[in-house]
Amino acid sequence: MLEIVCYAFIAVVIIQALFYVVVFSKLAFYKKKKKAFQTSSAPLSVIICAKNEADNLKTFLPYIINQDYPEFEIVLINDASNDDTFEVMEHFSSLHANIKVVNVKSIEAFWGNKKYALTLGIKAAKYDLFIFTDADCKPLSKYWLQDMAGHFSSEKTIVLGYSPYAKIKNSFLNKLIRFETLMTAVHYFSFALSGLPYMGVGRNLGYTKDTFFKANGFINHIQVKSGDDDLFVNQVANSKNTAISLSKKSFTESKPKTSFKSWYKQKRRHVSTASFYKTNHKLILGLLYITNLLFWVLSILLFAFNFQWQLVLALFLFRMLLQYIFIGKSSKKLLEKDLILLFPLLEFFLVFIQLTIFINNLISKPNHWK
């Protein structure tokens, strides 16, 4: 039996190595190409859907208002908040002519569904380019819009950005959250560069009005309460129409969760959308996760029984070396190099937390977005 386990471990390491060398190397060694066509001066609409975000809007909205960009509007969507969100939006709107407020009242058919509110906001937007972010996000530079919009062209109608979480000193949970965010970004950027874009994150995402309406908006997955970002990108993105933005000036920084319970609940909601991805995406991502899980389970089992430990150790270190090379280089591009030394520990915890999330989601459905 242990011999079979050992062969399985060898197969798992080979598959993992192929993912690192064939896919993740795309991001690790990516070099920005000069664009032949650029529309960074085209007017655009920044769209922010907020629910009970009064304090965050007061803190972070000025960073968006003060963007260095020729012409843009900010569409603020109040999604049936029960705090002062609408009043805060109205206050900013009274001070800035380029701010438009869309007040959405909850209706029974779409209760707790962010996509309904977003659709109303998108319909109210007047420009053809959309940049999406969240109320608790802060652009890391005043050139965020310039960098994101600069990737649009006659061919590229979807732009995938990156939104790291703010760092909290001496917090293992914060490092775990940031590692999970880093790995998610490495995956969606690397697959996009490999010609297989499958998701984006609404904290930093762009697409055109035409792309939205040609797809009939969110109608194909309107019954799914999450996925306004990743399910939409999964539906419309392809190898030709998708660009990525890796400039540090184009990043938006988000407020991280500070309790394991709140983060776990958030991840349950995010993971629940994966079952609605295209079949080929589910198969590839499923293989990636299963081999990741088996790498740890089988190595622990073989080490515990001291079976062929020299071979197992060599394969274990080989795979970890690949991670340090490829994910390490990518982490530097994405401003997360302080996580590099903790990769094995963080990955170990994350793999088994994800397993519990999958099991929990099979038993019960996660709640709506807020």
Automatic annotation (TrEMBL):
Indicate what this protein is called per its UniProt record: Glycosyltransferase
Origin, by domain of life? Bacteria
Q: Which PANTHER family match?
A: POLY-BETA-1,6-N-ACETYL-D-GLUCOSAMINE SYNTHASE
Q: What are the GO MF terms of this UniProt record?
A: glycosyltransferase activity
| UniProt keyword Glycosyltransferase, yes or no | yes
**What keywords tag this UniProt record?**
Glycosyltransferase, Membrane, Transferase, Transmembrane, Transmembrane helix
List the transmembrane segments: 6-29, 283-303, 309-327, 339-363
Domain Glycosyltransferase 2-like, chain residue ranges per copy: 45-179
The UniProt entry's sequence similarity note says: Belongs to the glycosyltransferase 2 family.
